[in-house]
Amino acid sequence: MLEINQLEKCFGDTQVLTSIDLRVKPGELVFVIGPSGSGKSTMLRCCNRLEEPTSGSILLDGEHVTECHGRALDKMRLKIGMVFQGFHLYPHKTVLANVMLAQVKALKRSKPEAEARAKEMLEHVGLAHKASATPGELSGGQQQRVAIARALALDPKVMLFDEPTSALDPELVGSVLKVMKRLRDEGMTMVVVSHEMEFAREAADRVVFMDGGVVVESGTPDEIFGNPKSERLRAFLSRLS
Ligand code: ADP
Ligand code: MG
């Protein structure tokens, strides 16, 4: 579904990603862990070309993301749902309007069609009753679920999550993870950067450990958490506990 081959990224003279290879199969949830500054966000951002890869290739469903330009790139980006730490909702628009907007503007859906889909997705994340609220009236966890609904409304082939719960108060984290778990159970293909190790153990098919811009180790949650092979991963995990 998503294939990253020999991805390299430099900012000026600084190389932040080196020879990243990652394959995500349809319906798989790949979890990415690693210390701050290890290149996790940069890797996700390269996937929809928010960052331009220095070299390497990225394919989505067999199509080269890295060779798309202009309109084709816009279209490709719609197939890659992104959810960030901050929610980036329009503060003066209602929740419903937030979930409709890109559908109308980018997918050219009619307003009734976009509205129906928005309502369906809000229902999905448990927020149908907040459709006419503005983001400021919602908790952080609810806002993040709106952001997830907005991404899902565009019918992405893969969803990329960059620390979706890091900005949330601890008591709100669970509601967002629950929505993500449900998506996984429904067969969505997902790449999740997060520090929620319990969630990784429960929900991940595979865990990838990055450090210093390289994939140091990857394996099942049992392998990564139960039997870490590299010294770097062992050190990282021991700092968490
Ligand atoms: P992570 O998400 O794992 O914390 P990042 O991908 O954000 O790591 O960052 C990896 C490295 O790339 C860091 O050293 C960071 O300072 C650097 N970096 C990220 N974005 C930029 C940028 N736009 N310009 C220069 N350096 C950057
Ligand atoms: Mg990051």
TrEMBL record:
It comes from the Bacteria. One of its GO terms (molecular function) is ABC-type amino acid transporter activity. It is a peripheral membrane protein. Coiled coil: none annotated. GO terms for cellular component: plasma membrane. Residues 2-237 form the ABC transporter domain. It is found in: Cell membrane. Keywords: Amino-acid transport, ATP-binding, Cell membrane, Membrane, Nucleotide-binding, Transport. Pfam families: ABC_tran (PF00005). Belongs to the ABC transporter superfamily. This is Amino acid ABC transporter ATP-binding protein.
